[in-house]
Amino acid sequence: MNIASRPIAAAALLLAGIASPALAELPAGERAPVFTAKAAMAGEEFGFSLRAALAKGAVVLYFYPKAFTKGCTLEANAFADAMPQFRAAGASVIGMSGDDIETLKRFSREECRDAFPVGTASARLIEAYDVALGQGDLASRTSYVIAPDGRIAYVYSSGDYREHVSRTLAAVKSISK
Question: Which CATH number is associated with domain 26-175?
Answer without folding.
Answer: 3.40.30.10
